[in-house]
Amino acid sequence: MSVAIIDYGSGNLHSAAKAFERAARSMENPQKVFVTSDPDQAYGADRLVLPGVGAFADCRRGLDAVNGMVEAVNEAVRVKARPMLGICVGMQLFATRGKEHVITQGLNWIGGDVEKITPRDESLKIPHMGWNTLDVLREHPVLERLPLGPKGQHAYFVHSYHLNAANEADVLARADYGGPVTAIVAKDTVIGTQFHPEKSQRFGLALISNFLRWKP
Amino acid sequence: MFKVRVIPCLDVKDGRVVKGVNFVDLRDAGDPVEAAIAYDAAGADELTFLDITATHENRGIMLDVVRRTAEACFMPVTVGGGVREVNDIKTLLRAGADKVSINSAAVSRREFVKEAAEKFGGQCVVVAIDAKRVKRAGGGERWEIFTHGGRNSTGIDAIEYAQEVVSLGAGEILLTSMDRDGTRQGFDIPLTRAIADSVPVPVIASGGVGNLDHLVDGIRDGHATAVLAASIFHFGEFTIREAKEHMARRGLPMRMDA
Protein backbone atom coordinates (compact mmCIF):
# COMPACT_ATOMS: atom_id res chain seq x y z
CA MET A 1 0.00 0.00 0.00
CA SER A 2 1.24 3.47 -0.78
CA VAL A 3 0.18 7.00 0.11
CA ALA A 4 1.03 9.88 -2.23
CA ILE A 5 1.27 13.37 -0.80
CA ILE A 6 0.94 15.65 -3.77
CA ASP A 7 3.61 18.32 -4.11
CA TYR A 8 2.45 21.22 -6.24
CA GLY A 9 4.58 23.88 -4.65
CA SER A 10 2.15 24.75 -1.89
CA GLY A 11 3.94 25.21 1.41
CA ASN A 12 4.74 22.89 4.13
CA LEU A 13 4.89 19.29 2.95
CA HIS A 14 7.59 18.20 5.35
CA SER A 15 5.39 18.19 8.42
CA ALA A 16 2.45 16.63 6.56
CA ALA A 17 4.72 13.86 5.30
CA LYS A 18 6.15 13.30 8.79
CA ALA A 19 2.69 13.07 10.35
CA PHE A 20 1.55 10.52 7.75
CA GLU A 21 4.77 8.55 8.20
CA ARG A 22 4.27 8.51 11.96
CA ALA A 23 0.66 7.36 11.63
CA ALA A 24 1.59 4.77 8.99
CA ARG A 25 4.39 3.33 11.14
CA SER A 26 2.05 2.61 14.01
CA MET A 27 -0.35 0.60 11.87
CA GLU A 28 -0.74 -3.14 11.55
CA ASN A 29 0.02 -2.99 7.80
CA PRO A 30 2.66 -0.34 7.22
CA GLN A 31 2.04 1.87 4.20
CA LYS A 32 4.69 3.65 2.22
CA VAL A 33 4.30 7.43 2.36
CA PHE A 34 5.92 9.53 -0.36
CA VAL A 35 5.82 13.12 -1.54
CA THR A 36 5.49 13.45 -5.29
CA SER A 37 4.95 15.93 -8.09
CA ASP A 38 4.76 13.13 -10.66
CA PRO A 39 1.19 12.56 -11.92
CA ASP A 40 1.93 8.92 -12.76
CA GLN A 41 3.08 8.24 -9.20
CA ALA A 42 0.03 10.01 -7.80
CA TYR A 43 -2.22 8.03 -10.12
CA GLY A 44 -0.58 4.78 -9.08
CA ALA A 45 -0.85 5.35 -5.34
CA ASP A 46 -3.44 3.55 -3.19
CA ARG A 47 -4.29 6.74 -1.32
CA LEU A 48 -3.78 10.40 -2.08
CA VAL A 49 -3.34 13.48 0.07
CA LEU A 50 -3.77 17.00 -1.25
CA PRO A 51 -2.33 19.56 1.17
CA GLY A 52 -2.46 23.29 0.56
CA VAL A 53 -1.79 26.61 2.22
CA GLY A 54 -2.13 30.14 0.94
CA ALA A 55 -4.74 31.57 -1.40
CA PHE A 56 -7.20 29.44 -3.40
CA ALA A 57 -6.26 30.88 -6.80
CA ASP A 58 -2.52 30.42 -6.16
CA CYS A 59 -3.06 26.82 -5.14
CA ARG A 60 -5.19 26.12 -8.20
CA ARG A 61 -2.53 27.70 -10.40
CA GLY A 62 0.11 25.58 -8.69
CA LEU A 63 -1.88 22.38 -9.27
CA ASP A 64 -2.48 23.29 -12.93
CA ALA A 65 1.21 24.03 -13.37
CA VAL A 66 2.09 20.38 -12.70
CA ASN A 67 1.44 18.97 -16.12
CA GLY A 68 -1.16 16.18 -15.97
CA MET A 69 -1.75 16.35 -12.21
CA VAL A 70 -5.38 17.51 -12.31
CA GLU A 71 -6.21 14.70 -14.77
CA ALA A 72 -4.30 12.19 -12.64
CA VAL A 73 -6.13 13.02 -9.39
CA ASN A 74 -9.48 13.19 -11.19
CA GLU A 75 -8.95 9.73 -12.65
CA ALA A 76 -7.60 8.30 -9.39
CA VAL A 77 -10.59 9.54 -7.43
CA ARG A 78 -13.46 9.39 -9.90
CA VAL A 79 -12.55 6.32 -11.95
CA LYS A 80 -10.35 4.23 -9.66
CA ALA A 81 -12.24 5.36 -6.50
CA ARG A 82 -9.04 5.90 -4.52
CA PRO A 83 -9.44 7.46 -1.08
CA MET A 84 -8.23 11.03 -1.03
CA LEU A 85 -7.77 13.47 1.85
CA GLY A 86 -7.63 17.21 1.26
CA ILE A 87 -6.18 19.48 3.92
CA CYS A 88 -7.01 23.18 4.32
CA VAL A 89 -6.82 24.77 0.86
CA GLY A 90 -6.34 21.26 -0.53
CA MET A 91 -9.82 20.51 0.80
CA GLN A 92 -11.16 23.81 -0.51
CA LEU A 93 -9.98 22.84 -4.00
CA PHE A 94 -12.60 20.04 -3.92
CA ALA A 95 -15.29 22.73 -4.24
CA THR A 96 -16.95 24.04 -7.37
CA ARG A 97 -15.45 27.51 -7.09
CA GLY A 98 -13.19 29.57 -4.89
CA LYS A 99 -14.17 33.17 -4.21
CA GLU A 100 -11.02 34.39 -2.48
CA HIS A 101 -10.24 37.75 -4.15
CA VAL A 102 -11.14 36.33 -7.59
CA ILE A 103 -13.45 33.58 -8.78
CA THR A 104 -11.48 30.43 -9.55
CA GLN A 105 -12.75 27.03 -10.65
CA GLY A 106 -12.19 24.18 -8.21
CA LEU A 107 -12.14 20.44 -8.93
CA ASN A 108 -15.92 20.36 -8.43
CA TRP A 109 -16.02 17.13 -6.45
CA ILE A 110 -18.03 18.74 -3.65
CA GLY A 111 -20.67 21.20 -4.81
CA GLY A 112 -20.36 24.65 -3.29
CA ASP A 113 -18.24 27.78 -3.12
CA VAL A 114 -15.31 28.71 -0.91
CA GLU A 115 -16.35 31.93 0.80
CA LYS A 116 -15.04 34.29 3.43
CA ILE A 117 -16.08 33.41 6.98
CA THR A 118 -18.08 36.16 8.65
CA PRO A 119 -18.39 35.69 12.42
CA ARG A 120 -21.43 37.41 13.91
CA ASP A 121 -19.37 38.45 16.91
CA GLU A 122 -17.20 41.30 15.62
CA SER A 123 -14.59 40.83 18.33
CA LEU A 124 -13.70 37.47 16.77
CA LYS A 125 -10.55 37.79 14.69
CA ILE A 126 -9.95 36.74 11.11
CA PRO A 127 -8.12 34.42 10.34
CA HIS A 128 -9.85 31.82 12.49
CA MET A 129 -6.51 30.77 13.99
CA GLY A 130 -6.23 28.27 16.79
CA TRP A 131 -7.96 25.30 18.37
CA ASN A 132 -11.65 24.56 18.09
CA THR A 133 -13.96 21.66 18.85
CA LEU A 134 -15.96 19.91 16.12
CA ASP A 135 -19.69 19.22 15.91
CA VAL A 136 -20.17 16.00 13.99
CA LEU A 137 -23.25 15.90 11.72
CA ARG A 138 -22.94 12.33 10.54
CA GLU A 139 -20.78 9.29 11.12
CA HIS A 140 -17.89 8.36 8.89
CA PRO A 141 -15.14 5.70 9.13
CA VAL A 142 -12.46 8.42 9.25
CA LEU A 143 -14.05 9.81 12.43
CA GLU A 144 -14.38 6.41 14.13
CA ARG A 145 -13.47 6.31 17.82
CA LEU A 146 -12.50 9.98 17.90
CA PRO A 147 -13.88 11.82 20.93
CA LEU A 148 -15.45 14.87 19.29
CA GLY A 149 -18.27 17.25 20.18
CA PRO A 150 -18.27 20.25 22.56
CA LYS A 151 -16.35 18.35 25.28
CA GLY A 152 -14.19 16.43 22.84
CA GLN A 153 -10.77 16.94 21.35
CA HIS A 154 -9.68 19.97 19.35
CA ALA A 155 -8.50 20.59 15.82
CA TYR A 156 -6.05 23.30 14.74
CA PHE A 157 -7.46 25.79 12.23
CA VAL A 158 -5.81 28.60 10.28
CA HIS A 159 -8.08 30.05 7.61
CA SER A 160 -10.25 32.97 6.55
CA TYR A 161 -12.38 31.13 3.97
CA HIS A 162 -14.41 27.94 4.17
CA LEU A 163 -16.31 25.60 1.87
CA ASN A 164 -19.97 26.52 1.87
CA ALA A 165 -21.31 23.18 0.62
CA ALA A 166 -24.36 23.24 -1.65
CA ASN A 167 -25.49 19.90 -0.28
CA GLU A 168 -25.76 19.57 3.49
CA ALA A 169 -25.13 15.83 3.21
CA ASP A 170 -21.55 16.52 2.10
CA VAL A 171 -20.71 18.22 5.40
CA LEU A 172 -19.41 15.81 8.07
CA ALA A 173 -18.51 18.27 10.78
CA ARG A 174 -18.65 21.95 11.62
CA ALA A 175 -16.88 24.23 14.05
CA ASP A 176 -18.50 27.23 15.67
CA TYR A 177 -16.76 30.56 15.18
CA GLY A 178 -19.44 33.17 15.60
CA GLY A 179 -21.53 30.96 13.31
CA PRO A 180 -21.03 27.62 11.57
CA VAL A 181 -17.71 26.99 9.81
CA THR A 182 -17.33 23.92 7.60
CA ALA A 183 -14.70 21.71 9.23
CA ILE A 184 -14.92 18.38 7.38
CA VAL A 185 -16.54 17.50 4.06
CA ALA A 186 -16.85 14.02 2.58
CA LYS A 187 -18.39 12.46 -0.49
CA ASP A 188 -17.76 9.06 -2.04
CA THR A 189 -14.03 8.40 -1.66
CA VAL A 190 -12.93 11.95 -0.86
CA ILE A 191 -12.72 13.58 2.52
CA GLY A 192 -11.40 17.03 3.34
CA THR A 193 -10.54 18.83 6.54
CA GLN A 194 -10.41 22.61 6.83
CA PHE A 195 -8.18 22.18 9.89
CA HIS A 196 -4.68 20.71 9.89
CA PRO A 197 -4.66 17.12 11.19
CA GLU A 198 -0.87 17.11 10.82
CA LYS A 199 -0.78 19.94 13.39
CA SER A 200 -3.54 18.69 15.67
CA GLN A 201 -1.37 16.55 17.94
CA ARG A 202 -2.85 13.22 19.09
CA PHE A 203 -6.31 13.83 17.62
CA GLY A 204 -4.79 14.70 14.24
CA LEU A 205 -2.63 11.58 14.14
CA ALA A 206 -5.64 9.44 15.09
CA LEU A 207 -7.67 10.94 12.23
CA ILE A 208 -4.79 10.31 9.80
CA SER A 209 -4.59 6.68 11.02
CA ASN A 210 -8.30 6.29 10.38
CA PHE A 211 -7.87 7.69 6.88
CA LEU A 212 -5.06 5.21 6.22
CA ARG A 213 -7.36 2.36 7.33
CA TRP A 214 -10.41 3.60 5.43
CA LYS A 215 -11.68 1.26 2.73
CA PRO A 216 -14.52 3.10 1.00
CA MET B 1 -15.79 26.17 21.14
CA PHE B 2 -12.83 28.27 20.11
CA LYS B 3 -10.04 28.28 22.68
CA VAL B 4 -7.40 30.69 23.94
CA ARG B 5 -3.84 29.73 23.03
CA VAL B 6 -0.90 29.43 25.43
CA ILE B 7 2.42 29.63 23.59
CA PRO B 8 5.80 28.92 25.16
CA CYS B 9 8.70 30.68 23.44
CA LEU B 10 12.20 29.25 23.22
CA ASP B 11 15.14 31.57 22.54
CA VAL B 12 17.67 29.65 20.50
CA LYS B 13 21.26 30.70 19.86
CA ASP B 14 23.53 28.63 17.60
CA GLY B 15 21.16 25.70 17.98
CA ARG B 16 21.01 25.81 21.78
CA VAL B 17 18.26 27.03 24.11
CA VAL B 18 19.46 30.20 25.82
CA LYS B 19 19.80 29.62 29.58
CA GLY B 20 18.40 26.11 29.21
CA VAL B 21 15.06 24.69 30.20
CA ASN B 22 14.60 22.86 33.47
CA PHE B 23 10.93 22.08 33.82
CA VAL B 24 11.16 18.34 33.23
CA ASP B 25 13.81 15.68 33.21
CA LEU B 26 15.43 16.47 29.93
CA ARG B 27 18.57 14.61 29.06
CA ASP B 28 19.86 17.78 27.48
CA ALA B 29 18.31 20.97 28.85
CA GLY B 30 19.88 22.97 26.04
CA ASP B 31 18.43 21.00 23.14
CA PRO B 32 15.53 22.98 21.61
CA VAL B 33 14.07 19.86 20.02
CA GLU B 34 13.85 18.05 23.36
CA ALA B 35 12.24 21.11 24.90
CA ALA B 36 9.77 21.29 22.00
CA ILE B 37 8.85 17.62 22.45
CA ALA B 38 8.27 18.19 26.16
CA TYR B 39 6.05 21.23 25.49
CA ASP B 40 4.12 19.26 22.86
CA ALA B 41 3.47 16.50 25.39
CA ALA B 42 2.52 19.09 28.03
CA GLY B 43 -0.28 20.45 25.86
CA ALA B 44 1.19 23.72 24.58
CA ASP B 45 -1.13 25.13 21.92
CA GLU B 46 1.72 26.33 19.71
CA LEU B 47 5.44 26.74 20.01
CA THR B 48 7.60 29.69 19.05
CA PHE B 49 11.33 29.55 18.37
CA LEU B 50 13.17 32.83 18.39
CA ASP B 51 16.53 32.46 16.68
CA ILE B 52 18.95 34.93 18.21
CA THR B 53 21.96 33.55 16.38
CA ALA B 54 24.15 36.48 15.44
CA THR B 55 26.01 35.12 12.46
CA HIS B 56 24.61 34.26 9.09
CA GLU B 57 26.74 31.09 8.91
CA ASN B 58 24.95 29.59 11.91
CA ARG B 59 21.45 30.17 10.53
CA GLY B 60 21.47 26.72 8.96
CA ILE B 61 21.51 25.21 12.45
CA MET B 62 18.03 26.63 13.09
CA LEU B 63 16.72 24.91 9.97
CA ASP B 64 17.94 21.63 11.36
CA VAL B 65 16.21 22.36 14.69
CA VAL B 66 12.97 23.12 12.85
CA ARG B 67 13.27 20.01 10.72
CA ARG B 68 13.87 17.74 13.71
CA THR B 69 11.03 19.39 15.63
CA ALA B 70 8.63 18.82 12.74
CA GLU B 71 9.58 15.14 12.73
CA ALA B 72 8.66 14.73 16.38
CA CYS B 73 6.00 17.35 17.18
CA PHE B 74 2.67 17.55 15.43
CA MET B 75 1.77 21.02 16.62
CA PRO B 76 1.98 24.50 15.07
CA VAL B 77 5.47 25.99 15.17
CA THR B 78 6.41 29.62 14.52
CA VAL B 79 9.99 30.67 13.88
CA GLY B 80 11.27 34.22 14.22
CA GLY B 81 14.62 35.94 14.22
CA GLY B 82 16.67 36.92 11.20
CA VAL B 83 13.81 36.58 8.71
CA ARG B 84 14.84 39.18 6.12
CA GLU B 85 13.88 37.94 2.69
CA VAL B 86 11.35 35.78 0.91
CA ASN B 87 13.88 32.99 0.62
CA ASP B 88 14.32 32.86 4.41
CA ILE B 89 10.59 32.22 4.73
CA LYS B 90 10.59 29.60 2.03
CA THR B 91 13.39 27.59 3.63
CA LEU B 92 11.79 27.80 7.10
CA LEU B 93 8.37 26.69 5.82
CA ARG B 94 9.98 23.90 3.80
CA ALA B 95 11.82 22.75 6.92
CA GLY B 96 8.50 22.42 8.75
CA ALA B 97 7.67 25.81 10.27
CA ASP B 98 4.00 26.76 10.01
CA LYS B 99 4.44 30.47 10.53
CA VAL B 100 7.35 32.85 10.44
CA SER B 101 7.62 36.02 12.41
CA ILE B 102 9.13 39.07 10.81
CA ASN B 103 10.47 41.84 13.00
CA SER B 104 13.02 44.48 11.99
CA ALA B 105 12.95 43.57 8.30
CA ALA B 106 9.33 44.77 8.22
CA VAL B 107 10.24 47.99 10.02
CA SER B 108 12.93 48.84 7.51
CA ARG B 109 10.95 47.66 4.48
CA ARG B 110 7.16 47.33 4.81
CA GLU B 111 6.80 45.88 1.31
CA PHE B 112 8.44 42.72 2.63
CA VAL B 113 5.23 41.90 4.54
CA LYS B 114 3.23 42.21 1.34
CA GLU B 115 5.66 40.06 -0.66
CA ALA B 116 5.59 37.40 2.05
CA ALA B 117 1.80 37.36 2.33
CA GLU B 118 1.32 37.24 -1.43
CA LYS B 119 3.78 34.42 -1.85
CA PHE B 120 2.89 32.23 1.14
CA GLY B 121 -0.49 33.51 2.36
CA GLY B 122 -1.08 35.87 5.27
CA GLN B 123 -1.88 32.92 7.57
CA CYS B 124 1.82 32.16 7.93
CA VAL B 125 3.05 35.74 8.22
CA VAL B 126 3.35 36.98 11.80
CA VAL B 127 4.68 40.48 12.31
CA ALA B 128 6.52 40.87 15.60
CA ILE B 129 6.17 44.33 17.07
CA ASP B 130 8.44 45.56 19.86
CA ALA B 131 6.82 48.64 21.37
CA LYS B 132 7.82 51.03 24.13
CA ARG B 133 6.08 53.96 25.85
CA VAL B 134 7.42 57.38 24.91
CA LYS B 135 6.42 60.89 25.95
CA ARG B 136 4.53 62.82 23.34
CA ALA B 137 5.92 66.20 22.37
CA GLY B 138 2.71 67.93 23.44
CA GLY B 139 2.29 65.90 26.65
CA GLY B 140 0.81 62.45 27.25
CA GLU B 141 2.23 59.14 26.07
CA ARG B 142 2.17 56.88 23.10
CA TRP B 143 3.86 53.63 22.03
CA GLU B 144 6.62 53.58 19.48
CA ILE B 145 8.27 50.78 17.57
CA PHE B 146 11.78 49.95 18.77
CA THR B 147 14.32 47.67 17.13
CA HIS B 148 17.49 45.90 18.26
CA GLY B 149 16.01 44.58 21.46
CA GLY B 150 14.49 47.90 22.44
CA ARG B 151 17.63 49.97 21.99
CA ASN B 152 16.82 51.77 18.75
CA SER B 153 13.90 54.14 18.51
CA THR B 154 12.20 54.48 15.14
CA GLY B 155 9.66 57.21 15.86
CA ILE B 156 6.96 55.00 14.32
CA ASP B 157 3.63 54.88 16.17
CA ALA B 158 2.88 51.29 17.21
CA ILE B 159 -0.86 51.39 16.50
CA GLU B 160 -0.43 52.90 13.05
CA TYR B 161 2.31 50.42 12.28
CA ALA B 162 0.17 47.45 13.36
CA GLN B 163 -2.65 48.64 11.12
CA GLU B 164 -0.28 49.13 8.25
CA VAL B 165 1.32 45.67 8.40
CA VAL B 166 -2.12 44.07 8.68
CA SER B 167 -3.30 45.98 5.60
CA LEU B 168 -0.20 44.61 3.82
CA GLY B 169 -1.27 41.06 4.65
CA ALA B 170 0.11 40.08 8.08
CA GLY B 171 -2.12 37.35 9.51
CA GLU B 172 -1.16 37.79 13.14
CA ILE B 173 0.67 40.24 15.41
CA LEU B 174 3.14 39.17 18.08
CA LEU B 175 3.20 42.17 20.38
CA THR B 176 6.00 42.59 22.92
CA SER B 177 6.17 45.43 25.41
CA MET B 178 9.82 46.39 25.71
CA ASP B 179 8.99 48.20 28.97
CA ARG B 180 7.69 45.00 30.52
CA ASP B 181 9.88 42.35 28.89
CA GLY B 182 11.85 40.58 31.62
CA THR B 183 10.22 42.54 34.46
CA ARG B 184 7.70 39.88 35.55
CA GLN B 185 5.18 42.68 36.19
CA GLY B 186 2.67 41.48 33.63
CA PHE B 187 1.82 42.53 30.09
CA ASP B 188 1.42 46.21 29.22
CA ILE B 189 -2.35 45.88 29.18
CA PRO B 190 -3.24 49.32 27.72
CA LEU B 191 -0.78 48.68 24.86
CA THR B 192 -2.11 45.18 24.21
CA ARG B 193 -5.67 46.40 24.21
CA ALA B 194 -4.94 49.40 22.00
CA ILE B 195 -3.35 47.19 19.35
CA ALA B 196 -5.82 44.28 19.65
CA ASP B 197 -8.77 46.63 19.30
CA SER B 198 -7.36 48.37 16.24
CA VAL B 199 -6.59 45.36 14.01
CA PRO B 200 -8.86 42.58 12.71
CA VAL B 201 -6.22 39.81 13.05
CA PRO B 202 -5.25 37.84 16.18
CA VAL B 203 -2.80 39.49 18.59
CA ILE B 204 -0.41 37.47 20.78
CA ALA B 205 0.47 39.28 24.00
CA SER B 206 4.11 39.00 25.08
CA GLY B 207 6.57 40.50 27.53
CA GLY B 208 6.45 40.63 31.30
CA VAL B 209 4.59 37.52 32.48
CA GLY B 210 5.46 36.79 36.11
CA ASN B 211 2.42 34.86 37.31
CA LEU B 212 -0.64 33.07 35.99
CA ASP B 213 -3.00 35.98 36.59
CA HIS B 214 -0.98 37.96 34.08
CA LEU B 215 -1.97 35.44 31.41
CA VAL B 216 -5.63 35.91 32.29
CA ASP B 217 -5.25 39.71 32.19
CA GLY B 218 -3.70 39.61 28.71
CA ILE B 219 -6.76 37.90 27.29
CA ARG B 220 -9.55 39.39 29.39
CA ASP B 221 -8.32 42.98 29.71
CA GLY B 222 -5.78 43.15 26.87
CA HIS B 223 -8.16 41.54 24.35
CA ALA B 224 -5.33 39.36 23.03
CA THR B 225 -6.25 36.06 21.34
CA ALA B 226 -3.18 34.23 22.64
CA VAL B 227 -0.49 34.64 25.28
CA LEU B 228 3.22 33.97 24.95
CA ALA B 229 5.60 33.40 27.83
CA ALA B 230 9.08 32.02 28.29
CA SER B 231 10.68 32.04 31.72
CA ILE B 232 7.66 31.08 33.84
CA PHE B 233 7.50 27.82 31.88
CA HIS B 234 11.17 27.16 31.24
CA PHE B 235 12.26 27.38 34.83
CA GLY B 236 9.63 25.06 36.14
CA GLU B 237 7.60 27.59 38.09
CA PHE B 238 4.41 26.57 36.31
CA THR B 239 3.53 23.86 33.87
CA ILE B 240 1.47 24.56 30.76
CA ARG B 241 -1.27 22.50 32.38
CA GLU B 242 -1.27 24.65 35.53
CA ALA B 243 -1.43 27.79 33.41
CA LYS B 244 -4.38 26.48 31.44
CA GLU B 245 -6.22 25.21 34.51
CA HIS B 246 -5.79 28.59 36.14
CA MET B 247 -7.07 30.40 33.08
CA ALA B 248 -10.02 28.00 32.83
CA ARG B 249 -10.90 28.65 36.49
CA ARG B 250 -10.99 32.36 35.66
CA GLY B 251 -13.57 31.63 32.99
CA LEU B 252 -11.43 31.54 29.85
CA PRO B 253 -12.07 28.80 27.27
CA MET B 254 -9.00 26.54 27.31
CA ARG B 255 -8.05 23.36 25.46
CA MET B 256 -7.27 20.58 27.95
CA ASP B 257 -6.81 17.65 25.50
CA ALA B 258 -3.28 16.67 26.39
TrEMBL record, chain A:
All residue ranges annotated as the Glutamine amidotransferase domain in the record: 5-212
GO CC aspect terms: cytoplasm
Main location: cytoplasm
Signal peptide: none
Biological processes annotated in GO: L-histidine biosynthetic process
Reaction catalysed by this enzyme: 5-[(5-phospho-1-deoxy-D-ribulos-1-ylimino)methylamino]-1-(5-phospho-beta-D-ribosyl)imidazole-4-carboxamide + L-glutamine = D-erythro-1-(imidazol-4-yl)glycerol 3-phosphate + 5-amino-1-(5-phospho-beta-D-ribosyl)imidazole-4-carboxamide + L-glutamate + H(+); L-glutamine + H2O = L-glutamate + NH4(+)
Keywords: Amino-acid biosynthesis, Cytoplasm, Glutamine amidotransferase, Histidine biosynthesis, Hydrolase, Lyase
Annotated PROSITE patterns: GATASE_TYPE_1
Active site: 88, 196, 198
Taxonomic superkingdom: Bacteria
Pathway involvement of the protein, from the record: Amino-acid biosynthesis; L-histidine biosynthesis; L-histidine from 5-phospho-alpha-D-ribose 1-diphosphate: step 5/9
InterPro entries: Class_I_gatase-like, GATASE, Imidazole-glycPsynth_HisH
Subcellular location(s) per record: Cytoplasm
GO molecular function: glutaminase activity; imidazoleglycerol-phosphate synthase activity; lyase activity
HAMAP family linked to this entry: HisH (MF_00278)
Subunit structure: Heterodimer of HisH and HisF.
Classification via NCBIfam families: IMP_synth_hisH (TIGR01855)
Physiological role: IGPS catalyzes the conversion of PRFAR and glutamine to IGP, AICAR and glutamate. The HisH subunit catalyzes the hydrolysis of glutamine to glutamate and ammonia as part of the synthesis of IGP and AICAR. The resulting ammonia molecule is channeled to the active site of HisF.
Protein name as annotated: Imidazole glycerol phosphate synthase subunit HisH
UniProt source species: Bradyrhizobium rifense
TrEMBL record, chain B:
Protein name (database record): Imidazole glycerol phosphate synthase subunit HisF
GO biological process: L-histidine biosynthetic process
Pathways involved: Amino-acid biosynthesis; L-histidine biosynthesis; L-histidine from 5-phospho-alpha-D-ribose 1-diphosphate: step 5/9
Membrane-crossing residue ranges in chain numbering: none
Catalysed reactions listed for this entry: 5-[(5-phospho-1-deoxy-D-ribulos-1-ylimino)methylamino]-1-(5-phospho-beta-D-ribosyl)imidazole-4-carboxamide + L-glutamine = D-erythro-1-(imidazol-4-yl)glycerol 3-phosphate + 5-amino-1-(5-phospho-beta-D-ribosyl)imidazole-4-carboxamide + L-glutamate + H(+)
Molecular function GO terms recorded: imidazoleglycerol-phosphate synthase activity; lyase activity
A Pfam family recorded for this sequence: His_biosynth
Enzyme class: lyase
Any one Gene Ontology cellular component term annotated for this protein: cytoplasm
Assembly: Heterodimer of HisH and HisF.
EC number: 4.3.2.10
Active site per the UniProt annotation: 11, 130
Compartment(s) where it occurs, according to its Swiss-Prot or TrEMBL record: Cytoplasm
Function statement: IGPS catalyzes the conversion of PRFAR and glutamine to IGP, AICAR and glutamate. The HisF subunit catalyzes the cyclization activity that produces IGP and AICAR from PRFAR using the ammonia provided by the HisH subunit.
Keywords tagged on the record: Amino-acid biosynthesis, Cytoplasm, Histidine biosynthesis, Lyase
Keyword Chaperone: no
Family recorded in the similarity comment: Belongs to the HisA/HisF family.
The gene coding this protein: hisF
